Amino acid sequence: MKVILIKEVPKFGKPYDIIDVKRGFARNYLIPKKLAIIGTQANIDGLAKSQKRFSKAAEKKHQKGMDLSERLATISVKTTIKLGLDGKIHGSITSHVISDLLKAEGIDLDKKFILLDEPIKHPGIYDIFVHLGENLKGSFKLVVLEEGVPS
């Protein structure tokens, strides 16, 4: 059965691909989850108009990601991490904290796009990488300073 993908389906294709799948897979999974539509001739003819609109939107999104990447490369964000009386670090810097720091700089970036293997628990200078779109990443500097407990 021919279907036109509306959204990306891993191992099958990207939006606007015309693929052949088994009838049950199309009827029970792809179509009910609004991942695809039936590949009728009318739908295939309307595909060309949708592809033009999709490519313009994708190009605009890619350009926005490139601009954000360039802006991120020029900034350096500073924060502190608490140091207790015993010299141990209390707390950590997570992607949520980094997202809030970027918002203070005027960059609205969701925490799920910040590529952080594990929370930062030591003072230092870190290169933080962010996912900005398909095949597009950016990075910025994060400076973590010690904040001692007052006596």
Protein architecture, described:
There is one protein chain. With 151 residues, the protein is an alpha+beta fold. It has two domains: 60 residues, Ribosomal Protein L9, domain 1 (3-Layer(aba) Sandwich), CATH 3.40.5; 79 residues, Ribosomal protein L9, C-terminal domain (Ribosomal Protein L9, domain 2, Roll). Helices cover 34% and strands 30% of the residues. It has a five-stranded mixed sheet. Strands 2-1-3 form a three-stranded antiparallel sheet, covered by helices on one side. A hairpin with a 2-residue loop joins β7 and β8.
Provide a compact summary of the structure.
This protein has 2 domains: 2-61, 3-Layer(aba) Sandwich (Ribosomal Protein L9, domain 1); 70-148, Roll (Ribosomal Protein L9, domain 2). It is 34% helix and 30% strand.
Q: How many E-type strands?
A: 8
CATH topology of the largest domain: Ribosomal Protein L9, domain 2
- Strand % is 25-35%
Mean pLDDT reading: 87
Key words describing this protein structure:
2 domains; 8 strands; alpha+beta; Ribosomal Protein L9, domain 1; three-stranded antiparallel β-sheet; five-stranded mixed β-sheet; Ribosomal Protein L9, domain 2; 151 residues
